[in-house]
Amino acid sequence: MKNYLLTILAAAIIIPVAAQQPDESATAPKPTPSPWTLKGTASINASQMSLSNWAAGGDPTIAGDAALTYSADYKKGVSLWQNRLELAYGLNRTESNGMRKTNDKIFLSSSYGYKVAESLYVSALAKFNTQFADGFDYATNPRTLTSGFMAPAYISTGLGIIWTPKAWFSVNASPATWRGTIVDVASLRPIYGLEADQKMKNEFGGNVVLEAKGTILKELTAYSRLNLFSNYLKEPQNVDVDWTLQLSLKINKWLSASLSMHAIYDDDIMIPQADGTSKPCLQLQEVAGIGLLVNF
What is the largest CA-CA distance in the chain? Predict the structure, then answer.
C-alpha cells in the first residue's frame, strides 16, 4: 500500500513539472528564406507518321523538338538580379524533303537593379541571342543559306530602370542602350543590314522590355516577353519589335502540352521575296507539341 502511495505522489509531482517544460520545436527560430528563386523546365516533344499504300496520299514524317528554360532571380535588400536562359532546337524529317530545322534558339539575359524607391530600381541590362546551326531557305533550288551560329548574333547592354509593380510583371526601360549585330558569314551580311566587309554593326538607342509570367489557370502557365528597340542614329521612328510567348499546360506529372510563339519585325532584316526582291517583313514562328516535361 505504501508503494502505491509513493507512486501516486511521484506522478503528481513529475507530470505537472513535465507539462511546464517549453516546447523547443515551438520556440526554434524559423529558417531564413533564401534570396534566390530558381526555376527551370526541360521538355521533349516528338511525333511520327508512317504511310503504306495510303490512297489519300501524304508524306511520312518524323519530328522532334527539345527546349530548356531556366531562371535564377536574386532579391535581397536593395538588390535585384534577374537571369534567364532559353535554349531550343527542333528537326523535321520527311521522305520527300529530308531533314530540315524547325526551331533553333540561344537566348541569355541578365539584369541588375539597385532599389531607389518602392518597386523601382536603377538598372544595368545585358542580353545575347543567336542560334545553334545553319538555317536555309528551301524555296530556292539549290537551297540558300540564311543563318548560322553567330550569323546573326545580337549583343546589347543598357542602363536604365526596372519597375516591378506586381510580382508577375516587370518593365525594364533602358534609354541608353548599345546593340551590336554580328554576322560571321560574309554572304549573309546584306540580309541583316551590314556591308559585305562589315562583321559587326553598332547601334545606339532606347530599349524597353516588358515581361509577364505566372499561372493563368490551375495547370496552365504563361511567359511573355516584349522587346522594343529604337535606334537613335538611324530612323528612330522605326521601332524593332521582338515578342515571345510561351504557354505550358500540365497534363500529368510527366506530360504536358506546350505552345511557343515568336514574332519579329526589324526593318534592317531583308527577307527574300518570290519575285527576287527583298524587303522587311513580319517574321512569325509557332511551335506546338505534346511530350515529356520536367520541372526543376
Answer: 114
User: How far apart are alpha carbons 249 and 221 in whole angstroms?
Assistant: 7
Q: What digits encode the pLDDT tens for the residues 220-230?
A: 999 999 999 99
Strands 200-215 and 220-231: antiparallel
pLDDT value, residue 18: 41
Asked whether the beta carbons of 47 and 289 are under 8 A apart, the reply is yes
* 275: phi then psi, degrees, rounded to nearest 5: -85, 5
User: Count of alpha carbons within 13 Å of 283, Cβ hemisphere only?
Assistant: 17
In angstroms, the CA 62 to CA 64 distance is 7
pTM, entire model: 0.86
CA distances from 258 to 165, 231, 242 (A): 28, 34, 20
Span 172-184, mean pLDDT? 97
Beta strand pairing call for 240-250 and 278-279:
unpaired
Work out the average pLDDT over 255-267.
94
> What does the pLDDT average to over 2-31?
47
